[in-house]
Model the fold of this input.
Amino acid sequence: APPLRADRPGVAQFAELADMSLSGDITVEGEITVPVGAASPDEDFSTLDEPVRETIMRDLKAVGKKFVHVMYPRKSSALLRDWDLWGPLVLCVSLALMLQGGSADSKEDGGPQFAEVFVIIWFGAVVITLNSKLLGGTISFFQSLCVLGYCVLPLTVAMLVCRLVLLAGSGTVSFIVRLLVVLAMFAWSTLASTAFLADSQPPNRKALVVYPIFLFYFVISWMILTFTPQ
Amino acid sequence: QGGGSAVIDMENMDDTSGSSFEDMGEMHQRMKEEEEEEEGEAGAADDEDGEFLGVKGLRGQLGRQVADQVWQAGKRQASKAFSLYANIDILRPYFDVEPAQVRARLLESMIPVKMVNFPQKIAGELYGPLMLVFTLVAILLHGMKTSDTIIREGTLMGTAIGTCFGYWLGVSSFIYFLAYLCNAQITMLQMLSLLGYGLFGHCITLFVTYNIHFHSLFYIFWLGVGGLSTLRMVAVLVSRTVGHTQRLILCGTLAALHMLFLLYLHFAYHKVVEGILDTLEGPNVPPFQRVARDIPVISNALLNTTAKAAALTL
Done:
């Protein structure tokens, strides 16, 4: 290496560098380290050999962990990073099953049909996602679907509680109890999903994203509250 | 042109099951990876294979080539269509709003401005109107639930969404068409935005009157709130149209449709309180009966009666 000049420390002698010429092949030795992501294809291939029980347990644990994140919403990015749609599917199906009304021929239309609830949840989630993307959100389509689906969990719990309360009776007291429970769970759902989704928006537009979420969970809460068993 | 079936995979030669798109897709992936290296050799190999395999192999090859070309053409068209129509960025500029702006526009939609000599400004955004339509859907659902509306061939939710979106999109298009005929200066986006914000009055009215069941209250709200939002839209249209007849046609149609829609939403989906009617109109008039919205049954009944009448005449 060319010596540094005393009067200009830190500056190499460029003139001398120009005289240097590389002749012949220069052998380079060393190791190339691949970034962490490249390790996963190997892992994926090896999971083909593991027993089915392990795969299912791993997925179930991931879903369970996300349930915990929803019930205690903290600023963790686990829900966003490893999105999956198993949890939302399970929640949506169980909610739709519990909300199942009588058949269409009955005089008392007790509640919506399975397909109605299913379509409302998924269509509503898609609309909210599109809205937040159009407003300049940085979250991806499926991440948003994942968060909105998982945040239906408190409302599913509310539905369960409502059904149990309705088994006891359907008077004014039961209505007030159901109203309070559904209100609380609705607020929980909205706050949970807001905690995850609003961060991906520019700060002054949070209200624009929160309102459709509020409306979405309001419609679901309304369906739960007005459910009357056959 | 590359990509064409220059490479024939010797292993699959015996499989003349015909063209299948999945095979083509797979082969395409493999071909892309090996394309560069084998292009030179493939030319020679192709000729060799053609001669070597005879008729059976040739038909297999032809089938594959055709399938391959169809796959490619389809894929190209699909990706072109996707990038054209599913491009969400087309709508992005219409959602570029601040909450303060939305709030201001909501309030302005209730205040008619009397400036008719100069075209009034219309905000060209879609966020507010879309949210108002969804809010109207939610309010309608609430009204339908509390009035125990029974809808046989269809669902509550479907009806609510269909009604609200149908009104917003359909009436906007119709008025835009009329505006085109009457030479009014308004674009489709502006019309959608104007009518969307005009639904704010509807939302307020229905929200109040679905919960407080007083007929006179509804009529006051209908005239007052509905009237204000209609007047605002009418004033904007008048400022953008020239000529008395045109102004009359355009504004008359819009006012009629807007007010009638509010009337329809109230009466079609809301329980009529029979007691109040009784006291107002006396016991002679039978109470308004709620009938299940059962359109196919009615048409069946109609068919039955016409069939019976026809049978009688024959």
Summary: DSSP finds ten helices and no strands in chain A. The radius of gyration of chain A is 28 Å.
